[in-house]
Write a structure and sequence with these properties.
It comes from Sphingomonas ginkgonis. Helix content is 16%, strand content 12%. It contains three helices and three strands, in the order αβββαα.
């Protein structure tokens, strides 16, 4: 599909803009990919300049913690070299689900099609003096 192929998607938030694609092609060097298919780049002349091209929606919560540390310069080497492997008790990171059908909704939430239970009398409204 190629680098510029990422640009030709229905909207800019599911790929990259033409300017980002052109800049990445001219000045970027691919350094790695994560499990979600996000591609990480580093500037050829200024290694401190780093960026990510998301595979899908452009949402920073889709960046795994190890790669986030690399993007922000917390670690200088790539996550595979700088960090220990994931331990068995650690669960994989998940993107922010707010605003999606998978978002958590408490019982009584209108979006769950339920009705909130009536108050039980243990609440007393604040009345200003």
């Amino acid at each position: 599909m190629g680098l510029l192929g990422n640009f030709f998607k229905p909207t800019w938030w599911t790929g990259m803009t033409f300017g980002t694609a052109l800049f990445t092609q001219r000045h970027g060097s691919e350094v790695g990919r994560d499990e979600a298919g996000n591609v990480y780049y580093q500037h050829k002349k200024n290694p401190a300049r780093r960026w990510v091209v998301y595979n899908g929606s452009t949402d920073a919560s889709r960046t795994p913690p190890a790669w986030y540390a690399w993007l922000r310069g917390t670690i200088d080497e790539l996550p595979e070299k700088a960090l220990p492997p994931r331990r068995p008790f650690q669960i994989p990171p998940e993107p922010n689900r707010t605003g999606t059908d998978e978002a958590w909704r408490p019982s009584g939430s209108l979006s769950r099609g339920e009705q909130r239970p009536a108050t039980t009398g243990d609440y007393q409204a604040w009345i200003p003096d």
